[in-house]
Amino acid sequence: MKSKSENYFDQVFQVVKLIPRGKVTSYGAIANYLGLKSGARMVGYAMNASHGEKDVPAHRVVNRNGVLTGKHHFSSPKEMEELLEKEGVVVEDDQVLDFETVFWDPSKYLL
DNA sequence: ACCCTGACGCGTC
DNA sequence: GGACGCGCCAGGG
């Protein structure tokens, strides 16, 4: 047992794993869906731990602005936008275009 | 064992 | 309308 926090870490991982291909979501949306009082911050920390998780597409998680904030955490800064564009998500200047269109809200699409 | 920093978001000034 | 601070947790040096 590492710690109890791993519990909510796992919660975040589950949701991220469920993000459909070609869609993106925001840290806040996940936090809101999980009801994390601390907010998006915890989601961010959780993503940090998602490094070992192979099934966690962290590249589909952006901030509320649609900006690829965590791109620098990948093997290569370009990897995130490449992965997204590969899935059909248009990214320009580290920002997701048509963010509302490709936005996938867990609490809305996930019951 | 302590100090620091870090994938966010929102309310206020 | 822009800038700043707060809240919260964990892992690393």
Automatic annotation (TrEMBL):
Molecular functions per Gene Ontology: methyltransferase activity
Keyword Transport: no
Key words, A-Z: DNA damage, Methyltransferase, Transferase
GO biological-process terms attached to the record: DNA repair; methylation
InterPro entries: ATL_DNA_repair (IPR052520), MethylDNA_cys_MeTrfase_DNA-bd (IPR014048), MethylDNA_cys_MeTrfase_DNAb (IPR036217), WH-like_DNA-bd_sf (IPR036388)
Domain Methylated-DNA-[protein]-cysteine S-methyltransferase DNA binding span(s) in chain numbering: 9-89
Statement: the UniProt record of this protein carries the keyword Lyase: no
Source domain of life: Bacteria
NCBIfam families named among the record's database cross-references: ogt (TIGR00589)
UniProt protein name: O-6-methylguanine DNA methyltransferase
Lineage, top ranks: Bacteria, Pseudomonadati, Bacteroidota, Cytophagia, Cytophagales
